Amino acid sequence: MSQQLRQCWFAYIVLVLNMQDLIVYGKTKRQPQNQHEQFPCYFIFGDSFSANGNDNGLDTFKSNYLPYGIDFLDGPTGRFSNGKIMVDIIAEKIGMKDYIRPYRTVGTNRQMLKGVNYASSGAILQLEIAGSKVNSISLGQQLKYHKKIVRRISNILGSKNMTKQYLHRCLLSVEIGCNDVFNNYIPNNDGSDPTPRQSPDRFAQYLVDHFFFNNLHNLHNFGAKKVVVFGLPSLGCSPAAIRMYGNGSNQDEHKCISVINKDIQLYNSKLRTMVFNLNNYTKNAQFTYIETSQAYQGFKNIGKACCETDLDGMCYSMGKSCNNRKDYFYWDGYRPTEAANIILANIAYNASVPSHAYPFNIHHLISNTTSHKS
Questions:
Q1: Each residue of 242-266: pLDDT tens digit?
Q2: Distances in Å between the alpha carbon of 53 and those of 23, 104, 119, 121, 249?
Q3: Are the beta carbons of 213 and 138 closer than 8 angstroms?
Q4: Mean pLDDT of the chain
Q5: pTM of the predicted model, to two decimals?
Q6: What per-residue confidence (pLDDT) applies to 108?
Q7: Could you count the other beta carbons within 10 Å of the beta carbon of residue 354?
């Protein structure tokens, strides 16, 4: 590792530790970090890392019970964390006065002008297997919902041209793929190495080329000009992965499953290339990639869940949870604590090195928000 890279990593870890010192526990309130809204609206696509209530009425994994939401002002809402999720904190950072409402509760009122959260637990990229195990909302279905919202916004604003100009100034974030990649492994609970169903390289390329790229291009056709694409976290460090596959010899110094994290890096590298291609392919659009796979650095407890979990990685209803939540990266078997979500949102908004945000961070997108013409 070069000296320059070591210095970058050291600065990053110091940032992580400093950010954790700023966290105050108890019921967390919304804390807008900018006086003025930096984007007029924020649309959110993703899986349980971004979900905030769309699953509550579905036959799928839900988190509308304690201890989920134990540190959130409104209690359990459908967020898969103890408190705020990453997109909540991003909404605060861009000055939104309220958190973005889930699609299933937004209705037909003018609140949709501020954005909509379409994310759903279990959401995947691949349309043909969505819902095969749970009633998840695939990325393709989330785009269909977005198309309906765009039509409603057009009715409110009164013209397609005004709607187009309005949507050009909105922020969109897309965080999805964990379920696709993790489900490519043949599940076991005997500590043997994970066995991929398909070649990780070919499978990753297939997901990016046939699903991710096409869906993002469709978003652009719907008026999206400022799109943040999140890379996958280090799933090999998740408590669920360690429970299923850990045998000591296949784990790194953090007890993470090395082969899974290697496949995550492979997938993320293809996402980064996709973002580069989209910026060259689309007109007057700004796509950016955010790397999240190293965000666990600096936490005392990386591969342990803060709450007691079942075999699906979900917190037991009314089960026990740790007291020192700021020390844990994972809240349940798969999803981050609020402490970790603060770090993830800070990387997305402020990261200054290309290895974390490419070609730029969210704050960089703001400078062209009000001046963009197309």
A1: 999 998 889 999 999 999 999 999 9
A2: 24, 8, 8, 9, 39
A3: no
A4: 88
A5: 0.91
A6: 75
A7: 12
